[in-house]
Design brief:
Length: 166
């Protein structure tokens, strides 16, 4: 019961924070509408996920979060350059396919962050998340082998997310 209340409060606070950032105003009428909308959503979706749901608030987890975003930005730039090279190449060297990869992450939020990180990286798209399995569309499928694909696509993100979420 306490966890559900905490999750609802975290969801409410997250939604209200985004409302204030989007509106750019702390006027009373704006805050009242934001509080009401955030409260209704938090009450309708008590099991809703926010970034801090299941987050391990330890110094090691905060450091892993900082390093995770650095790693994500590096992978984002690298994959953008790779995809740009593919697009401008006259032979268009693509080998699309869907590969099945495995994750060691146990938390729902950790798996969601992993799936979103893969999807936000150009050239890959998480198609389905089912338990420990992710099905990823890969523009240039380097390997259909589960272990090799997992090492290539998942392992880097998972290293940090495991410390943050378990």
């Amino acid at each position: 019961m306490m966890r559900r209340l905490r999750d609802s409060l975290v969801l409410f606070a997250t939604l209200l924070l985004f409302w204030v950032m989007l509106m750019g105003s702390l006027a009373a009428d704006t805050l009242i509408v934001g509080v009401m909308a955030s409260l209704v959503i938090a009450l309708l979706f008590p099991d809703g996920l926010s970034f801090f749901t299941e987050f391990r608030a330890t110094p090691r987890a905060f450091l892993a979060g900082f390093l995770y975003y650095g790693y994500f930005l590096k992978e984002l730039v690298k994959s953008n350059l790779t995809l740009a090279a593919i697009v401008v190449s006259p032979s268009l060297p693509i080998d699309p396919g869907i590969v099945k990869v495995r994750t060691r992450l146990k938390s729902r939020m950790g798996r969601l962050m992993l799936a979103n990180s893969i999807t936000l990286t150009p050239g890959t798209l998480t198609v389905e998340l089912e338990g420990e399995w992710l099905y990823v569309h890969w523009v240039r499928m380097e390997s259909a082998d589960i272990d090799a694909a997992t090492a290539r696509i998942v392992a880097g993100f998972e290293h940090y997310l495991e410390v943050m979420y378990g």
